[in-house]
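Thread: Modeling a multi-component assembly for a lab meeting

Hi all, long-time lurker, first post. My supervisor asked me to bring a structural picture of a complex we are working on to next week's group meeting, and I have zero experience with this. I have the sequence lines for every component (790 residues in total). Could someone generate the structure of the whole assembly? Inputs are pasted exactly as I received them:
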Amino acid sequence: MPFRHCAFVRLRLYVYSKEIRIFLHKLIVNSLSERTLQIIVTGLVQGVGFRPFIFRIAKKHNLTGWVQNTNENVIIQVTGTSQNLKLFLLSIKKETPAAAVIRDISTIEIETTDFGSFSIRESNDVSEEITEISPDIAVCDECRRDMEMRGNRLGYAFVNCTNCGPRFTIIKDLPYDREKTTMKLFTMCPKCRHEYNDVNDRRFHAQPVACSVCGPHYELFLEGKMISSKVDEIIDTVANSIEKGGIVLIKGLGGMHLACDAFNNQAVEKLRNLKNRDGKPFAVMFRDIETLEPYVEIDYPERQSLMSWRRPIVLLQKKKVTSLPMSEIISSGLNLLGVMLPYMPFHYLLFKSLKTSAIVLTSGNFSSEPILTDNMTALDQFSNHADVIVLHNRDIYNRTDDSVVRIIAGKERIFRRSRGYVPSPVPTSLNTEGIMAFGAELTNCFCVGKRQNAYLSQHIGDLQGIETIEFYEQTITLFFKLFRIKPALAAVDMHPMYISSKTGLAMEGMPVVHVQHHHAHIASCMAENMLDEKVIGVAFDGTGFGTDGNIWGSEFFICDFNDFERVTHFEYIPLPGGDSATEEPWRTAISYLYKVYGISFRQLELEFLKKTDPEKIRLIIQMIDKKINCPLTSGAGRLFDCVASLLDLVQTATFQAEGPMRLESLVKQDCNESYEFTTGQTICFDQTIRGIVADITDGIEKVTIATKFHNTIILAIFDSVNAMRTKSGINKVVLSGGVFQNKYLSVKTMDLLRNNNFEVYSHSVVPANDGGLALGQLAVASKRRELLCV
Ligand SMILES: [Zn+2]
Ligand SMILES: [Zn+2]
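Re: Modeling a multi-component assembly
Sure thing. I ran the full set together rather than chain by chain. Output:
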């Protein structure tokens, strides 16, 4: 019996061991035999050290093969064991370089090939498709350390590597190679070439690689004459000039900057006069995060934005008490300060020599013109105005301003999308191919479509001066070239007088889709949130051309991409003088008062009425009565203007949205009171105006009145949206328009809606203001093309 039992066990062992042997054999064969994969990676994978990264991880996992940039994507063919290939794919996903964004990886097995080694192949312009172009990247820590080390990069202000440096601003065409950038003029010295070719070097295939021997350099100009090209002397002179209250023009990444000491009131005032910029707040660059902490409140997401490689200007709340007060005129008495950290090697070198911990850094131009990029023009225009001019000989091909963001509800919201963000695409769920959206008139950005992506241009500005219009047209041409766009459909604002609309209409032989301004706002927010259905849209801004010929700006829509129904809006009021009323909020205030009180408003005890010339008031009344140059408006921005004027915060605006910004500056968190308003066909604020006037007459604090007014608007939004949900059953609310850049209004509105189980969508990757409008135009055009075969 034991024997037989043993035999049975042996038999079973034999059977098992045979199975195990087969299994092990398969395993060994699978893991040891080599396979070849073709991997295609799309996304932001050029100019961010992606190929060297692939090279390194291929070596690490003992793979042979090659990697190649095309203008469409990055192609990799690799041979190795299954296990190593698996690890390689994992590394691609997990260890991606900081500035790279992988949107898709596709893998197919191809015939096994023995490549012998791993190599980086020459770029190949294979098709009319494109891959993404990297935005410019702030200088990395390692490059900053190189600037401290002996050798060709000691104090060298153009140091860069595959992880940092200029990108979009120097690129002329794709694929991204040195030959197609403004670095083409600089021939690499043997040392730089060695690094460029050494796969183990951080500068392996870094296209703008340079050193003090072979790369670009700065030059110092005094009174139009070149004085020095020694970086030490330049830095010393600039630092000295700033310390003494001078104004310095410095060529940067995407354009020229004007700089002065942020603590020197006189210098800031001089700069303001020079720029003809009465009140618009300036941005300030601080030495580092530690030196800015005494001046501004800063939370974790704000810190993240400030320190990110994109290095935007971040709008931060000023601290009430600071050790050393900064010039008040920088931020024009607002409670926000635009703050940024150094991002170019030159900035770091400068702060090493500067005693002051912060400098005003504003775009080098006269107001309303685009930021200057050209050396000769800079010398022509500023030799008599700036105390010192510092230029460099690396051309700026693509002009970009500093970007501006604000953290609202814990999320970065872009107010001005330019350096560090452009030209990254906005992925959408729509077929955007060949659509060109021309954008708004002010704060213009345009947008081109490729496959399902939307490529929004950098901030162009207000299409009013000839220089800006030229910049607009040149950039359109460049985007067509860079992104291989064959424009097939134009999308323009309905406003017949917009330069952008006229430009679109002038495109020969192209069908044109006209998109209502506020519909475009909502569509823009829907597109970035990948919503494609009927939603409740709330678009609040200053002005936009409506389908009834009036000026809209407080719109409650039931809409999708294709069409919209205007459900309600703020009651129309006459806007005496049209556009000029946006610059003179007191006109709007008179219009509201006249509507609410009739002619007896003139007896009201209001400070601003006492200050205003009675003859001017009489004229405004006459214009309203006779309907002369008094377009009707429902613009939410105008109601904010009116209240800012009633509180005597601003009568003549010195920059866009000054009234609303001053009102928001006053808001306090601990007040839940509000004013009365009525809803019917439209939303009427007569009771609100009466309440405000009563509070002013009663001597109630402005902060309380401003807060009560904000709360009133929030309730008006909520009431209207709630009624729309009851009627339509739609639960998704989309908020867009410049008014939602108001943090208090945005956060409180979103909270109130979410607490009542609404799904709320807002902007984060494109601006809520007109800078994001083109994305909405593009989305509407795409949907109409799909439905109607435009
Ligand atoms: Zn670097
Ligand atoms: Zn060199």
